[in-house]
């Protein structure tokens, strides 16, 4: 879809949200859902490994999220990098083709989904770009600590070619996800500007204290960088425990009027060293969708989904509660069935 036909970047998301009825539903955890389908992602490429070994599974997970009600599906390119594919022995051309393939599969899933339906619910394909730390696969995507040798220039050089390819792949927008620090946000903003990228983007950050992004940089400063970049159409938080979301949305709202995108993880913590998800101490089961419509919407968020360890059930519940809420008060049945389907740790 992109910005063809002279559409202004500034109205891209507001037009989309209007078509969706005011609020949009994103997909849920992608890589962790591939794992639930049996994929072994213990690999530096993580979910991008499936672009090589099992594209049918990538398509399956996209379709599952579309069936669950997603208005935005995010591609399997989170940890797909030219550098990462080259390290596996692929040529540069093959690496670029794999990046394009991540978008092609998502577009194909949307076509399959549309073919099944009478009406065409709005669905955008967001090309995922994970951080430099995600490529390093050493836990720094959750510490944001790249060391002094890594500068904005280093990060721009690292991301440049991938971003250019994804921008010309047919995707509707670029999702810069799990951004752990300020310098990477700055690198993305400069890159979009320098390269004249003409599809919109969202910047999404992760936090482990509800106050700052994971590096300790302030969420306000990070969100302000996103706010100043004209290609950025939404700002938000992903892969962060649900209990931190409300405060972060409030902080973001103070520095930008752009739409806010929220897709927390299940509330468990990822241990980068053991590569395991660990349940947080003192965690309680709660009902995710209630929180979405209650606190987060009031605080100003308008796009909602899930990140790691959330599933199509999470998205089905969010979708049901939001659509009930669009027309009338939340109906009790939806609340009850959401409760039984959700398992989120607060
Ligand atoms: C570590 S966050 C991962 C985000 C990515 N879109 C996924 O769900 O796999
Ligand atoms: Zn995640």
UniProtKB/TrEMBL annotation:
Zn(2+) binds at residues 239, 307-308. GO terms for molecular function: S-adenosylmethionine-homocysteine S-methyltransferase activity; zinc ion binding. It comes from Prunus yedoensis var. nudiflora. Residues 12-322 form the Hcy-binding domain. This is Homocysteine S-methyltransferase 3. Binds 1 zinc ion per subunit. InterPro entries: BHMT-like (IPR017226), HCY_dom (IPR003726), HCY_dom_sf (IPR036589), Hcy_S-methyltransferase (IPR051486). GO terms for biological process: methionine biosynthetic process; methylation; S-methylmethionine cycle. Its cofactor is Zn(2+). PROSITE patterns: HCY (PS50970). Keywords: Metal-binding, Methyltransferase, Transferase, Zinc.
């Amino acid at each position: 879809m992109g910005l063809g036909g002279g559409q202004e970047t500034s109205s891209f998301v507001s037009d989309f949200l209007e078509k969706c009825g005011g609020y949009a539903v994103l997909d849920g955890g992608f890589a962790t859902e591939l794992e639930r389908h049996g994929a072994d992602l213990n690999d530096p490429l993580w979910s991008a490994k499936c672009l090589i070994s099992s594209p049918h599974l990538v398509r399956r997970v996209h379709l599952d999220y579309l069936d669950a009600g997603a208005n935005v599906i995010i591609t399997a390119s989170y940890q797909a990098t030219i550098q990462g594919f080259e390290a596996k022995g692929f040529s540069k051309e093959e690496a670029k083709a794999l990046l394009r393939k991540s978008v092609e599969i998502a577009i194909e899933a949307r076509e399959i989904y549309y073919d099944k339906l009478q009406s065409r619910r709005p669905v955008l394909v967001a090309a995922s770009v994970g951080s430099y730390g995600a490529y390093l696969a050493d836990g720094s995507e959750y510490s944001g600590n790249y060391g002094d040798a890594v500068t904005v220039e280093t990060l721009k050089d690292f991301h440049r070619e991938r971003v250019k390819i994804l921008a010309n792949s047919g995707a509707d927008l670029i999702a810069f996800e799990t951004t752990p620090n300020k310098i990477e946000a700055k690198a993305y903003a400069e890159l979009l500007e320098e390269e004249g990228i003409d599809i919109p983007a969202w910047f999404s950050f992760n936090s482990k204290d509800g106050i700052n992004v994971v590096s300790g940089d302030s969420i306000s400063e990070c969100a302000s960088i996103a706010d100043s970049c004209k290609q950025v159409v939404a700002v938000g938080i992903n892969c962060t425990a649900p209990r931190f979301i409300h405060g972060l949305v409030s902080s973001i709202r103070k520095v930008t009027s752009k739409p806010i995108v929220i897709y927390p993880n299940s509330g468990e913590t990822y241990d980068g060293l053991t590569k395991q998800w660990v349940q947080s101490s003192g965690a309680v089961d709660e009902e995710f969708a209630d929180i979405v419509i209650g606190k987060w919407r009031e605080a100003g968020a308008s796009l909602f989904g899930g990140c790691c360890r959330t599933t199509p059930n999470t998205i089905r519940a969010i979708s049901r509660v939001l659509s009930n809420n669009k027309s009338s008060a939340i109906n009790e049945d939806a609340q009850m069935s959401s409760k039984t389907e959700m398992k989120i740790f607060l």
